[in-house]
Write a structure and sequence with these properties.
This protein has one domain. Helix content is 17%, strand content 23%. The chain contains three helices and 14 strands. The strands form three sheets. Strands 3, 6, 7, 8, 9, 10, 11, 12, 13 and 14 form a ten-stranded antiparallel beta sheet that branches. Strands 1-2 form a two-stranded antiparallel sheet. Strands 4-5 form a two-stranded antiparallel ribbon.
Length: 354
């Protein structure tokens, strides 16, 4: 069940791509009259000849997948975790989700609102694919100093995590989830849509209702003084893969506290099956991490998962409740103090914890 309203009127029209399949000989095997063959997927084309990526997409089945490699798989590669072992991992994710549902809530969100089913259909054990250890590389000394400076400024301000709506994240404020956050699996709203035209690709995100329009004509990026929460995207084709390079981020929405002046995200969209698109993102910021790193998330093409209207501000009871809950907690601490009871306020959960 989803936290959505009626389908948005006048949304971009999506075209469902056709599929072609061709048979080719299996490489390296002896040819006989009954030679084995394997079916190789042929990416369909738009009327103007580009690879066709269009359709309704979801990463619903990947909800709950660890971002980095769990310690239990130390020394192993992602490609080696497959078959029954991968199936077991996906079943474990599903069972944990169901257990949380039975408990009544997940991270403070009532289970009835969540896209929390069929996680066993997911196809990844974790997301970070480079480095091979499946871990985000260490931060540079500059990146560590920048993070420490932000933390100290926050501490020195004396503000709590919910003194005002401005103390909450851009996601809580219904402004943006940023990039690549807008396409990362989460509690609900995991639908997307890709629409193509000659010279352009548009990606529409259900959550926070944002749309990226990506030109493919080789134009340069916007000037360095133009900064956007979703960055400035430019795309091109490398064979059947759409490569999108995005720069010009704003400081407030730069991914994982990266330096917006030097951050570059390189996305690769490749249709690998009639119902699957591989989405890989390389995070390149030499002032924040000691080396570039890449994660990959499978996207499923599913007509059953169309984008719905995300009426965030109209129904943003979460912000009201977060702030009123913080005030109630402060009053409870004061009341305890009058009774001689000393305790720290309960922590307000972050977006990730919710």
């Amino acid at each position: 069940m989803r936290k959505r309203a009626l389908a948005s009127a006048g949304a971009l029209a999506a075209v469902i791509a056709f599929v072609g399949v061709a048979s080719v000989p299996v490489a390296g095997q002896a040819r006989t009259a009954a030679a084995n063959t394997t079916k190789k997927y042929v990416v369909p084309r738009t009327p103007w000849g580009d690879p066709d990526l269009q359709g309704n997409l979801t990463n619903l089945y990947e909800v709950g997948t660890p971002f980095e490699r769990p310690d239990e798989f130390a020394g192993r590669r992602l490609a080696d975790v497959k078959g029954e072992e991968l199936a077991r991992i996906r079943r474990d994710i599903q069972e944990r989700t169901r257990a949380q549902q039975l408990a009544g809530e997940i991270g403070g969100t009532r289970w009835i609102w969540l896209d929390s089913f069929k996680h066993e259909k997911g196809s990844a054990a974790w997301f970070v694919v480079d480095p091979q250890d499946g871990k985000i590389p260490p931060q540079t000394a500059e990146g560590q100093r920048r993070a420490a400076t932000r933390a100290e400024a926050r501490r020195a301000s004396g503000r709590g995590p919910a003194d005002s709506f401005e103390d909450r994240s851009l996601w809580d404020q219904c402004i943006t989830r940023g990039l690549p956050g807008s396409m990362m699996p989460t509690l609900y709203g995991n639908s997307y849509r890709i629409v193509q035209g000659a010279g352009y690709v548009a990606i529409q995100y259900e959550m926070i209702h944002e749309t990226r329009v990506i030109p493919l004509d080789g134009r340069p990026h916007a000037g360095k003084n133009i900064r956007l929460d979703m960055g400035d995207a430019r795309g091109h084709w490398e064979g059947d893969t759409l490569v999108v390079e995005t720069t010009n981020f704003r400081d407030r929405s730069a991914y994982r506290g990266a330096n917006p002046e030097t951050l570059k995200l390189i996305e690769r969209f490749t249709r690998i099956a009639p119902d699957k698109i591989s989405w890989a993102v390389t995070v390149d910021d030499s002032s924040t991490w000691v080396r570039p790193w890449t994660f990959a998330v499978p996207l499923t093409i599913a007509d059953t998962e169309p984008i719905m209207e995300y009426g965030c501000h109209e129904g943003n009871y979460a912000m009201t409740n977060i702030l009123s809950g913080a005030r109630a907690e402060e009053r409870a601490v004061e009341e305890d103090a009058r009774k001689g009871i000393t305790r720290a306020p309960r922590a307000i959960p972050t977006d990730e914890e919710r």
